[in-house]
Amino acid sequence: MEKYLDIISAQLKEAFESKGYDGTRVAASVSNRPDLCEFQCNSAMALAKSAGKAPIMIAEEVAGQLKENPWFSEVSAVKPGFINLKVSGTQLAGYVDGMNHADKFGLENASPAKKIIIDYGGANVAKPLHIGHLRSAIIGESLKRICRYLGHEAIGDVHLGDWGLQMGQIIAELQERQPDLPYFDQAFDGSYPEEPPFTISELEEIYPCASGKCKTDPAFAQKAHEATHRLQNGDPGYRAIWNHILNVSIADLKKNYDALDVHFELWKKESDAQPYIPAMLEDMKGRGILKESEGALVVEIGQEDDKKELPPCIVVKSDGATLYSTTDLATLVERMQLFGPDKVIYVVDKRQELHFIQVFRTSRKAGIVPDQVELEFLGFGTMNGKDGQPYKTRSGGVMRLETLIGEINDAVLERMKENREFDQAEAQKTARIIGLAALKYADLSNQATKDYIFDLSRFTSFEGNTGPYILYTIVRIRSILNRYGKQPSGHIRFTGNEPEKQILIELSRFSDVIGSACKELAPHKICSYLYDLANAFNVFYHEVRILTEEDEEKKDSYLSLLDLTARILEQCISLLGFAAPERM
Length: 584
What we know:
The protein is α/β, with parallel strands linked by helices. The chain contains 21 helices and 13 strands.
């Protein structure tokens, strides 16, 4: 279906052109003064200079032309040159009725459909997920769902950190603790044990211990560097330990990501990119883009239109070691060869922006990524506490993700107990559903690039712009429909009251909002839409008799409208990555 706003804009364009004006850039927008009108058009002011007329004169001519147009119930010209519009409730209801019977509520798939790899998650093996991993997971999962809904082939890649010094540190510490393990016996030629020599809890204790020792014990630090070198050069015992680390860590990570309802199609790792590095470096040398700088090999990335000087991308350090930039470039080589994407989106902390500018420009210069393939960096801000500092535990440490989820679920459970009694098992299950909504909505309702304050009390409230409020609205609508006792006909018409019209207007915006959220990588636009639609319904609920309406045809239309509202609310929260419980 054509977007409702495009239909309104087309009516305006035709009116402008009928009066002899250029209609190329004529468009309607949702009014920023809903007390005055529902839609507005500011195009008269843009055309005033070329037309040689005052904007209000143009606006009045066009408004006069639109007065008989069936799409509008009210048209007025307002100084200095605005055209204020109220739409016909009958035409609007006809459009929404069409949405009710259309696939995906009339949303048209993106054309052309693209293959998009979304790099999000970015966890490191051998470490627990903490709140620093939260935003990447939540934003990335939502973007993947939005892209898929628009018809794109979206592929989520966790891109695990499993290579480098951290692995050597773990191996060195394990050797000090259990030197008799066969992995450290150079003469061992049998099969290594299938069971790992550590649990996830032990592994999570080993890494920080080893990392701390490296900072204070030079001998241990040297041992860790040697272990890293042996691992990366294929030592069979060290590779066996590394595989144990991966298996134990990934099983635990999947459990934690599942609790967030975050899922990946690819569990690729930094190590997967290593085989591509030698040929990539040779090709870069052949192109003549690698320059020596203080013993390191770098690629100059500066361009004439840069507003400030950008440092070169270091590809190989002076000691011959590779870096994250090397691995990220090789990962792009791998992605181009294995998947041939049209676009790659990186959902990463915004403090990594310079790194990705360097990687993107180097990948173009090296011919790794063709010009027609889009590379996009979505840098997200920090989740802070009320003190404005990164959110931490009460003792001041970095909070584990499962701890945060537990605190939210407990807070929701307490709020639920204030309102009614639940079976304990049902209450805990419902609290987990609402808690996830509270967490994700709190994050996604903010523009991704902005820092935000995480307020546990506010975000778990059942009132205001929160996830629980959206869920409560859905549950309330479903309760009304259940009390009705039968499925409404699905035919929506305008019966003449203002709260009804406001719901119709909000519903008509669905395709425009989802398309914009996908194009701009902006899940917060869906959150804003959800809040507006939920508010419109709740005004309707309080001001209009629904189940007690005596006119059966009118009642059926109301309930058909409510059913569509619930389904669109449910579709939107699914795109954000959560669902509604049966009751609250």
